[in-house]
């Protein structure tokens, strides 16, 4: 578990309300955003802290773990793990690593909550051997138990430890013959296609978990984790809940009172200020994501002569 104190990172006390945590996060995120010259490492820590304590359920789990480091492990019994040291060997639930893929989402797709089709390579159970990898027999080294016993010390101080069998790698079985299709891996790689609906305002670094849509391993299917990457599109950018548009104006545009931009919900006429300053973006309130604003960066571009 990360040893950083998430409350200290956000600059709030442990009794802060969710609204206070949210306000603190927004302020720090703006100050330390890499696009504004902030430290990327600091920004990541701020985002990690808010992702945890900004969610009531995750915050409760985080607080419990801080008060009791054994919370959530083996039913909360802090002595359960020590049984393995002195000879106990508990049957562990089979787990499969999550499959993580990165999904490019354009700014406008994020704004519109678009449908996305994902194509990714996925390991399925081999049809020939049903994912078993071939015919197996009981391991003679551990008699099919998957572990061997090792005695350390002598006399009164002797201790018996159990460790995974080195011959079968803790599986308790060895191959008699391997499957000719998958050569013992138990899997075959196929291209999977999936259609998902993006939520409005989906942001950089967000994760979505698809249960059972990952790779086949150890007799079960793991989960698919989709990591979002926001990419600019048609001069639009995204900064948290703010929508940013880069407007490129020529000399003729500067002589007009207004100019037009292609906002996702429809074209908008923007009034040019009398004091034209390209270092300051124009702001249109509540035209961004989830109540955020639209910022228009002004760029002057023309050919001389």
Order of strands across the widest beta sheet? 12-13-17-16
Give the CA-CA distance, first to last residue: 63 Å
Ranges where pLDDT stays below 50 over 5 or more residues in a row are 72-92
**Overall mean confidence score, pLDDT:** 84
Shape from CA axes?
Answer: elongated
What is the CATH superfamily of the largest domain?
Urease metallochaperone UreE, N-terminal domain
- Share of residues in helices: 10-25%
| CATH overall fold name of the largest domain | HSP40/DNAj peptide-binding domain
> Largest beta sheet, briefly?
4 strands, mixed
Evaluate the radius of gyration: 28 Å
Order of helices and strands: HHHHHEHEEEEEEEEEEEEHEEEE
Structural classification: alpha+beta
Count every helix, treating DSSP H or I runs of 4 or more residues as helices. 7
